[in-house]
Every structure is written in C-alpha cells, then in structure tokens.
User: Which sequence fits this backbone?
C-alpha cells in the first residue's frame, strides 16, 4: 500500500498544500514548528479519521478558519483509491472513499503505523499503552477482532454495573459471565498469537539497529493458568475457575478484577525487565524496533504493508544508529514518511527530501 498524493487545506498551520509522495522513503526536513509533524498528522487523519495528537478535531482547524479538508489517493495492488476527510466547526466530520460517504472502519481506507516520541512509553509507560499498541494493529487487520473488543467492553461495563448493585442479580451476573469468559478467551488468544509473531520480528529488527542486546516479549495474564498449552479452552477453564474463586472479592470491590483490560506485555532486554533496567536510549531503541516490527507484522497478517510515519525518530540517536535506521527504512519495501531537522546524513540514502517552512513544502516534485 502506497500513498500517491495528499492535498491539505486549512489544517493546523497549513493553508494549502499538495504533496506528491515517492514510493519509498519521504523525508520532511526543517526547523521546529514549521509544519513537518502536521503533514504526518494529516496523513494519519486521512487514514483513520482521527489524530494521534488530539481527541479534539477543532484543534486541527487552522486559526480563524471554519473547516479543514484532506484529500488523498493511495494504491493497493492494482487499485487506486481516493479518500476525503472534512471537518467543519458547524456540522462535524465527513469521510468519503471513492466519493461515497463512509466511516473510519472502511476496509478500503489507507492504513498507517506511526511512531512518535511518546512511544518511548511503550516500554516504561502504563500497561494500557501496550494493550492499545497490540489492539490497534489487530483491529487494523481484522474486523472480527475489532468487534470482539468493542463487544467485550460493552459486556465489561454491564458486568461492572451488576457488581455495583447490592444484592447483585445472580441470573444477570451468570449470563454476563458466560459472555465475559467467551470474549476474554478469544481476545487473549488472538493477542498471544500476535505477541508470538511480534517477538520473532522484534528480535531481528532490534538486532539490525543495535550490535548487542537481546529482546524478548511475553504476554502477561491478569490471572494464573495451570500447566498445559495456552489455548482458548485452557484460558476459558482457568478464567472460569479464577472468577468463581474471586467472586466475593469482586462484589466487595464492585469491579471486574480480571480480564484482557488488565493484561500487560512484558518486554525484556537481556532477560531483565526493560522498563526497570534499560537506559532511556535503550528504551527508545526498543520502542522504534517495536514499531518497525508492527509494520512487518501487519504484512504477515494482511499480505501488504501499511504506510509508516516516523516523527522525529532520529532525535537523541547517535550517528551510527541514525545511519543504521535510515538504511533499514530506505531499503525496505514499505513506504515511509520521516520528519527531521536538517541532517546531511539522510541525503546519501537516495530519499525524496522536502524542506518544510511555514506550512509549505519546497522540493515537492
């Protein structure tokens, strides 16, 4: 999958911009606060209908304007698909694919993976960030998984409502419990399968960037599992047992104390927890490797690459790691967009380099 062109109007500091993309590495270079990240954000919004920087669409509308408008074309296999996203202060957001109104889950939409400096928290941040990292890619490649997660959280909310009542309605509780167990086991099974794939990929990608160190990723359940193969049946049986044994505690706490919403991913560097023992530089290397692995995992699961967006990924890397990373990205089959301050090293990799100044792009040909 490749983005061919994007037109951006009244978005952040960009009044009007047409950007034609190269099929490989596209570098957006310039000083801070010139609009480099805004272009990446526009591509992300074109793909997802929402931003990776804010939940408030109003903040993306250019100052003193009423609407922003994005229009792009991307190619997947032999098909060229057009997408439009418009948001107006008065009547909200509208998404069109091939001129037909749709929603952000349309199967023909552009797919992207994004790295931002905040992704350092994949390693040292809260478990919810790591869960969201897994769920994002699985939702991108599977509508079935998207529905599983959406339904799980609906069941979880209802289950918590039942637990808050005194006394609880046993009939409703039992019905919800059956669904809760079923959806939990399916989600966890899908996540573990993904982590097994990701683990094999991240070891390779981390090794390409770093001459030393070994990465290992493991899925961390919120409940114990007895000996045996971790599969749907085993997970269901152990979850049933745990819920039964902890019912009184959940009733007392008025909350669900187990399930996919409480699981985590443990990341190890040289067999030690990375969040505790890895330096900030090592954690950054791990986060970048995870994101690159996410791109390759997408290809394994869907048979095509997403577009890779990298915002200020080179910051705080030494020259050797910068060179290895740029070489790895520029030689890959996927299309990528990278923002950077002026860096002479990049020009040696045959990339398309565009200078961004005040929301405009120079060298866009």
Assistant:
């Amino acid at each position: 999958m490749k983005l061919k062109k994007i037109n951006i109007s009244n978005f952040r500091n960009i009044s009007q911009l047409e950007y034609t993309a190269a099929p490989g590495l596209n570098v957006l270079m310039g000083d801070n606060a010139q609009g480099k990240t805004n272009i990446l954000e526009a591509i992300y919004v074109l793909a997802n209908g929402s931003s990776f920087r804010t939940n408030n669409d109003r903040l993306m509308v250019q100052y003193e304007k009423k609407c922003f408008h994005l229009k792009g074309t991307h190619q997947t296999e032999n098909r060229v698909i057009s997408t439009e996203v418009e948001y107006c202060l008065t009547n909200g957001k509208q998404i069109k694919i091939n001129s037909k109104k749709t929603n952000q889950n349309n199967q023909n939409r552009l797919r992207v993976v994004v790295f931002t400096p905040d992704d350092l928290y994949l390693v040292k941040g809260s478990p919810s960030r790591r869960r969201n990292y897994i769920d994002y890619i699985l939702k991108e490649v599977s509508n079935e998984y998207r529905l599983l997660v959406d339904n799980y959280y609906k069941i979880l909310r209802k289950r918590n409502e039942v637990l808050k009542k005194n006394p609880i309605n046993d009939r409703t509780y039992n019905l919800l419990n059956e669904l809760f167990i079923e959806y939990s086991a399916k989600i966890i099974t899908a996540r573990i399968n993904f982590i097994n794939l990701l683990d094999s990929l991240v070891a390779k990608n981390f090794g390409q960037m770093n001459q030393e160190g070994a990465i290992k990723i493991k899925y961390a359940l919120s409940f114990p599992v007895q000996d045996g193969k971790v599969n749907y049946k085993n997970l269901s049986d152990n979850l049933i047992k745990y819920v039964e044994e902890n019912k009184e505690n959940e009733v007392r706490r008025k909350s669900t104390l187990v399930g996919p919403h409480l699981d985590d991913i443990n990341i190890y560097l040289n067999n030690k927890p990375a969040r505790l023992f890895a330096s900030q530089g090592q954690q950054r290397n791990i986060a970048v490797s995870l994101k690159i692995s996410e791109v390759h995992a997408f290809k394994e699961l869907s048979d095509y690459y997403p577009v890779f967006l990298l915002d200020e990924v080179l910051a705080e890397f030494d020259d050797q790691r910068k060179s290895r990373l740029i070489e790895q990205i520029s030689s890959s089959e996927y299309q990528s967009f990278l923002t950077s301050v002026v860096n002479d090293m990049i020009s040696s990799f045959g990339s398309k380099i565009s200078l961004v100044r005040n929301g405009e792009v120079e060298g866009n040909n």
Notes: The CA atoms of residues 30 and 342 lie 6 Å apart. The mean pLDDT is 92. The two ends are 20 Å apart (CA to CA).
